[in-house]
Amino acid sequence: MIYNSVLDAIGNTPIVRLNRVAVNSAANFYAKLEFINPGGSIKDRIGFWMIEDAERNGRLKPGGTIIEGTSGNTGVGLAMAAAIKGYQCVFILPDKMSQEKIKNLRSFGARVVVTPTAVEPDDPRSYYSVSRRLAQEIPNSLYIDQYNNLSNREYHYQHTAPEILEQMPEIDVLVAGIGTGGTITGCGKYLKEKKSGVEIVAVDPIGSIVYEVFKTGENKTPAEGYLIEGIGEDFIPDNYDFAQIDDMVQVGDKESFLMTRELLTSEGIYSGVSSGGAVVGALKWVKQQGKRLHGKNVLVIFPDSGNRYSSKVYDDDWMREVGFLESKTGNAGDLMRALNKKPDALIMANQSDPISMVISQLSEAGVSQMPVQDEKGWIKGIVRESVILKSLFHQQANLEDPIDDLVDTSVEYVTVADSIERISKLVTEGKVPLVTDPEDGDKLLGIITDIDLLNFLGSRH
Description:
Radius of gyration: 27 Å
Shape: elongated
């Protein structure tokens, strides 16, 4: 078939059976591969739809600017449609998003603003707040707001769900990650109307507030950081309609990232991490149901492609750095033991100690650097003998001066479980790793110096 434009090629994505990752499950597992859409994700479906809805109701004028807070995929869907329709785009992304997503958006000529992830939704720095502010500042602009724009879920009700039912009339369970809520609530509403007994299961990452609100009706636990992109929220968008969801399951970062890699090596499916998370959630939920779902058909939505995560989930070094893959060279605890670095031998200076006293401490201990703490016991940084020598030689300090002004604050806390790969990266960046033990109240165990790292790595070869 020949289409008039790339927008006409959106949809009709294939469904494939999952064979090896679900071999021990009682149910039959299938995946709907939304990364086959021309822009590479399920968000292609709502990008042009929300623009055309805004055109119809007069909110978007010719030559206007489209503004959206996005995890990346909706931005591509919007940018693709905007390129055809002649609109400019400004996208606001949280800083945990992959560089691939940021570069994809900029390749469309869009302006990309990166904001901090670890802030509340109503914080002026959040990508929700920045999106609203820019929509007020930029003339002839529109904040699309996929979270609260109900045309998001309306598209899936009118198009995605009928497509699913036509492709898979014998569907028993639909499983999808919950982010904006458009996909799962729109599809859920249609499938429940057209097929009796179908169950809708949402997948939410640990750290998001959605699971707690769904299960209890309120949010008492603050949102925490997580690494899965595209699903989970720290607020409840207008697109959410919990009446269309039968159950919800939580998934962790590590299991989701590992499943994403397994989907590639076992099923040949190059998907994003939210797909891996959705499969983990689906397998967990089906197992919880016991024999009830034996022989039933479970369809899992795969929102996007792995090519947007090559620097993360498919990068072995990154996976080891965050602790999702076993380190080839060991961890900080291994180094401490191998070099016989004992916590009891650790000496500490106070920020008010005179330089002369610190020199004596360094000399007596036979070390070249040591941590410096403030009056409350917090580590301010470290002091090196080379820095003290340089300051005295150039008469920039006197022996009676407090050591405080010579403290180097470029330290980084690590745990005994952190990989040597991460330690090496910190050292090459000029930072000094301070090793703590989370099982002992984050007790400071010691410093890892350049020579420590070289001695440890040398002993392994």
